[in-house]
Amino acid sequence: MKDVLDFFHESWPVRVVFRPGAATTATPREAAALGLRRLLVVCGSRGAATARAVADSLGPACVGLHTGARMHVPADVATRAVEVARAAGADGCVAVGGGSSIGLGKAIALRTGLTPIAVPSTYSGSEMTPVWGLTEHGAKRTGRDPVVLPRSVVYDPELTLSLPVPLTVTSGINAVAHAVEALYAPDASPLTTLMAEEGLRAMAGALPAVADQPDSLEARGRALYGAWLCGSCLGATTMGLHHKLCHVLGGTFDLPHAETHTVVLPYALAYNAPAAPEAAATVARALDAADAPHALRALAARLGAPRSLAELGLREADLAEAAARTAGQSYANPRAVTAEGALAVLRAAYEGGPPEFPGD
Ligand code: NAD
Q1: Which sign does the torsion angle of CA 309, 311, 312, 313 carry?
Q2: pTM of whole model > 0.70?
Q3: Which CATH number is associated with domain 15-160?
Q4: 75 three-state secondary structure
Q5: Could you read off the pLDDT of 237-269 as tens digits, one per residue?
């Protein structure tokens, strides 16, 4: 039965522009093409200068610049931004920045129904998904709603030139994680598999080149291209154990998003590989390596990324709770996730040693 094609695939209605300089040249055209006349630009405090340039490029179509985005979209931050959007009478929102800014744009769209546009400056991939997140009382809630999906995404590699190399590396491996889990997702299709392999190859090739030459627009462009493909995989498929672990570690233990993905990925894949050998083989092929989990760990190590959850500040005493929270949820994963299994992955990631687990 393995060779009989059987799949479902839904393509999202997203316009994508990819070009150096596009943030200020293409965003006004995209807004016009979507029929938007009153745009609120949102960003975090560090991205304010870039967002100001995008706001200026919109001319009279810009009705405000809101610089209040914060990591994981705290509910009060979202409420404030919704008030600003309503007071300005905005019909659209342009989120400029990383996943936190895009997350705030999505939160505004969720509550007001206005049309989101994204101008990403990291590789988080949020711009390609209909998934929103909100953090309240120490817990992060996520949901899917087509209203939050950016209708246009403007990729401008020039925006990523300022992304420091350590952040480039972890954000890039965060993108790689989307492609890895898309390969064994229950709703993978031939198209997502193609995007995943190409996205992995592009990102894994680009990251060392960016680390060598951070001002190379060519290398930055390859990384952002990889991020687009990996983000498209995230938007089109259902993520498994790796993303659940990172969600728990970020939401409950406040570990940093991209760094946590970077540390956990080799171990989550090593756990799943015996139940998803084709996916592991595809990752290995894309990385031009014999063994996917070891190659992912070596890539991160070579680029100076954090190696262990201990390094990220997790306490050993937290491992059991994190494992129980991960195993206590139901989600699709190629290998059954028991509390012992989740604990084994977490302990290995905590220690940062070689990613090896016995198969089923
Ligand atoms: P982020 O947006 O918080 O950015 C990380 C840091 O990098 C910030 O300090 C930011 O100011 C800075 N930064 C961003 N772009 C920069 C640039 N070009 N130059 C210099 N500094 C820059 O982090 P992130 O990793 O992009 O996104 C993480 C958030 O996105 C998390 O909350 C995560 O849950 C969410 N996310 C959501 C989805 C989704 O589909 N909903 C997908 C991926 C991530």
Answers
A1: positive
A2: yes
A3: 3.40.50.1970
A4: helix
A5: 999 999 999 999 998 898 999 999 999 999 999
Task: Using the mean position of ligand 1's atoms as its centre, give its distance from the Cα of residue 124 in Å.
Answer: 6
Ranges in the chain annotated CATH 1.20.1090.10 = 165-351
**pLDDT, tens only, 109-141:** 999 999 999 999 999 999 999 999 999 887 778
How far is it, in rounded angstroms, from Cα 76 to Cα 73? 8
User: Could you tell me which of 258, 270, 335, 326 has the C-alpha nearest to residue 297?
Assistant: 270
Ligand 1 pocket: which of 45, 110, 124 to mutate (most atoms within 8 A of CB): 124
Start-end of CATH 3.40.50.1970 domains in the chain: 15-160
Q: Is 118 in the pocket of ligand 1 (CB under 6 A)?
A: no
Q: How is domain 165-351 classified at the architecture level of CATH?
A: Up-down Bundle (1.20)
Helices marked H in 184-291 — which ranges?
A: 190-212, 217-236, 241-251, 257-272, 277-286
Distance CA 161, CA 261 (A): 22
102 CA to centre of ligand 1 in angstroms: 8
With 0-12 / 13-18 / 19 or more C-beta atoms within 10 angstroms meaning exposed / middle / buried, residue 315 is exposed
Q: How many CB atoms lie within 10 A of CB 173?
A: 27
Q: Count CA within 13 A, CB hemisphere, residue 226.
A: 33
